[in-house]
Structure prediction request, 57 residues.
Amino acid sequence: MDDALRAHRVARRAVAAQHEPDLGDLVPPVAVDVHGTGVVPVGRVLAAALPRPPAVQ
Prediction:
């Protein structure tokens, strides 16, 4: 592949990446009613879903 074609493809990918929606555009700012606790910020819901590191003894 020559350099001009490679540069053109890289430029097209960069422009396309600028127009992709952010995660914040796709996820509402709050999640509602997690186990009857009411409204919980999404960051806390995502953090609760992550595996926890082993406890240090």
